[in-house]
Amino acid sequence: VSGYAFSGPHQGFGSMARAWTRFWLRFSGARGLGRVAARLAAIPAPPHKGRVVLAQMSPRGFIEPTATIFHSALSLGNGCYIGDRAMLYQRHQGGAIRMEDKVYLYRDVILETGMGGSITIGEGTSLHPKTQVHANVSDIVIGRGVMLASNCSLYSYDHGIAPGMPIKGQDLRSKGPIVIGDGAWLGDGVRVLSGVAVGQGAVIAAGSVLTRDVKENCIAAGNPARVIRSRGNQEERA
Ligand SMILES: CC(C)(COP(=O)(O)OP(=O)(O)OC[C@H]1O[C@@H](n2cnc3c(N)ncnc32)[C@H](O)[C@@H]1OP(=O)(O)O)[C@@H](O)C(=O)NCCC(=O)NCCS
């Protein structure tokens, strides 16, 4: 039984609920009274992923009142969704976060930039719960229409590990930016290390650790991830 007056996967919003939500969405924002309006707008909304409907109802998109935006260089396209307890965080010398239209960040997603690293996320891309993107030293570019399942992590840097001195005191380093091509799908819990490029339309199996590039339309799996076949072969096999 749903606890929401107008929700349910097949019901959507009723017209009264839509009118209520549209009214309060006009005043919603990431801070102060905007957050109060966001809470009011969301009262009739469905839970969990269903809440993206709030972003779809306004070009300004929707930022959940429990999200934290601690960033001075964030640019948001139209209709973006920033979910519950999502964290957009700028460390020392952190570069920009750019989100094109209709980017959805579900709950507990973390985007962090620091030491000149920036994050770009293309139109129609979604990051599922608890996925983390940490762009320190080098950039992270995620293309359009990409699906990052839950619990993925992308780190564009490593700690220095020279012997004879504490790791904690060493500079961060990087093998280069991370690039995820348009239309790629990363399954649950994929780890992407610095300097790795994933080609357009590639599939990365759940739990894989990507240490090397994966070409477009290939399917890669394992730790370290290896290409197991291409999507073309899969279709031939079926
Ligand atoms: C990548 C994936 C789509 C491939 O599915 P598939 O085409 O049915 O592949 P198969 O199950 O036939 O597996 C092919 C081979 O890859 C291996 N493999 C599949 N997934 C693997 C994984 N996550 N890690 C390591 N090896 C894996 C299989 O063991 C098999 O090896 P074998 O030929 O030696 O027996 C699927 O394995 C996967 O990881 N899906 C992600 C699920 C997920 O995260 N969903 C979240 C929702 S967004």
Q: Which class do the helix and strand fractions yield?
A: alpha/beta
- Characterize the overall form: globular
Q: Please, what is the average pLDDT?
A: 93
Name the helicity range: 10-25%
Can you give a write-up of this model?
The relative contact order is 0.08. The protein is 14% helix and 29% strand. The protein has four helices and 24 strands. It has 238 residues and is α/β, with parallel strands linked by helices. The strands form four sheets. Strands 1-4-7-10-13-18-21-23-24 form a nine-stranded mixed sheet. It has a seven-stranded parallel sheet with strand order 2-5-8-11-14-19-22, with no helix packed on it. A six-stranded parallel sheet has the order 3-6-9-12-17-20, with no helix packed on it. A hairpin with a 4-residue loop joins strand 23 and strand 24. Coenzyme A binds next to strand 23.
